[in-house]
Design a protein that fits this description.
This protein is α/β, with parallel strands linked by helices. It contains 15 helices and 17 strands.
């Protein structure tokens, strides 16, 4: 009949104030077929093909990373403590020019392992050689939104054509676990003509767009000096917001930018760790959310984070808003849960995930609340999760009804082989 997950201490389905204590979840094939309290379970346990006893665990929807560059794990620790543009132009982009498809395969494999082991079940990747990343999605069982990053000077028309054909070919691959978008890097690396071409192609193929937007004060000031309007208003004026858009960062917003984002249903991927490590600033997340903007979380690449742990990312997001606005009530634990789950699904146009409910995809995680000191005492385990714990307490990860992490062991990928390959390749590239 499927899988019964029983005796779950607490189930947090994903929305504010939803909580089931001493619960169960029934999974058949790739869907959640029932969810409720143990004393309401009416099916005899003998009919299930597998039973998972989740005593001492809390269940959440799988966590959703709305912006990263997976292959950049090869650059972890390679260049730190530098201004963004200097960091990109002198260190990151020259390194990336040396990357082969096979390098990106192994770097992305390490990223996927790190994400799975810390509870991420979906990631949005803006990078290149994404056919190799799609192979990893198939091998690992994870979900991914794959977006070929486009920098006009490097990619031009040929790159756009390649990204367009990739997006059409891979949309819905891996039993629906791969979706695609077009991804101009930013307004400062793509001309208006190039951006309009991307918009045209996206409309033709019914594709959303993923873009870096208003990340640093310097880039925004320079853009306004040149164009006389903000990057947000500029993208609205050229028609990009006629499409679904995932805008990464949105740190430096001016005038009526927030209203424009809200009115046009632009989803924001907030990357707090990267923003503070690069001293980009603190995005006005609380103000955006209060105005109706859907804000989710991303890690950015590990070279500016330097890890892919969304639980740590959520904690930083909350603390930054509290201190920036001098208001300790902002971004509470329920906000963080929604940003990582239902908001992430909404931003990525995925209405079948992000919430533990009947007929939704069975993407869920079990977190051990008994074996770590960080969960004691048990006054409030959601608070313990976001304000004390991290991804190391994730015990079990299920995606589309398949166990991809079982008792902190990967079921589809070899960790030791991956670490060996990454270390070897990174050392060669750095030389």
């Amino acid at each position: 009949m499927g899988i019964l997950i029983k005796n779950i201490n607490e189930i947090y389905p994903g929305k504010r104030n939803e909580l089931i204590k001493d619960g169960y979840i029934i999974v058949e094939e790739e869907l959640i077929k029932d969810i409720g309290k143990m004393n309401q379970l009416e099916v005899n346990e003998s009919v299930f093909t597998e039973i998972i006893d989740a005593k001492g665990k809390m269940a959440l929807p799988g966590l959703i990373n709305t912006h990263t560059h997976a292959g950049m794990t090869l650059l972890r620790g390679y260049a730190d403590d530098m201004p963004l543009q200097e960091w990109l132009e002198n260190k990151i982009w020259p390194f990336e020019k040396k990357l082969t498809a096979e390098d990106i395969y192994w770097g992305s494999r390490l990223a996927i392992i790190e994400m799975l082991l810390s509870g991420t079940t979906v990631f949005t990747d803006m990078y290149f050689h994404l056919d190799r990343v799609a192979k990893l999605v198939e091998e690992s069982g994870i979900r991914a939104v794959l977006t070929e990053g486009l920098i006009e000077a490097n990619d031009g028309q040929e790159g756009l054509d390649k990204a367009y054909h990739f997006s059409k070919e891979y949309q819905g691959k891996c039993n629906g676990r791969v979706t695609t978008m077009l991804a101009p890097h930013s307004v400062y690396t793509c001309s208006e003509e190039y951006l309009k071409k991307i918009i045209k192609y996206a409309k033709k193929a019914d594709l959303p767009i993923h873009i870096h937007l208003s990340e640093t004060k310097k880039e925004v000031e320079q853009f306004i000096k040149k164009e006389k309007i903000s990057p947000v208003k500029y993208l609205k004026n050229i028609g990009m917001f006629d499409l679904p858009v995932v805008a990464a960062h949105c740190v430096h917003l001016v005038e009526d930018d927030i209203k424009i984002l809200a009115d046009n249903n632009v989803g924001v991927a907030h990357n707090p760790m990267s923003n503070i490590k690069l001293a980009s600033g603190v995005a006005p997340v609380a103000a955006m959310m209060e105005s109706g903007v859907t804000v989710a979380l991303g890690t950015d690449g590990v070279s500016s984070n330097n890890n892919l742990d969304l639980i740590e990312e959520a904690r930083m997001a909350s603390y930054l808003q509290k201190v920036n606005e001098m208001n300790p009530t902002l971004l509470d634990t329920w906000d963080l849960l929604e940003m990582l789950t239902v908001n992430g699904a909404s931003v990525l146009q995925m209405n079948n995930i992000g919430h533990l409910a009947i007929e939704k995809q069975a993407d869920l995680i079990l977190i051990d609340v008994e074996q770590s000191s960080r969960f004691y005492p048990h006054h409030n385990n959601l608070s313990n999760l976001f304000y004390a714990a991290n991804g190391n307490q994730v015990d079990t990860v299920m995606i589309a009804g398949e166990l991809v992490v079982d008792k902190r062991e990967l079921t589809n990928l070899d960790l030791e082989e991956t670490l060996y390959e990454v270390e070897k390749r990174a050392a060669i590239l750095a030389k």
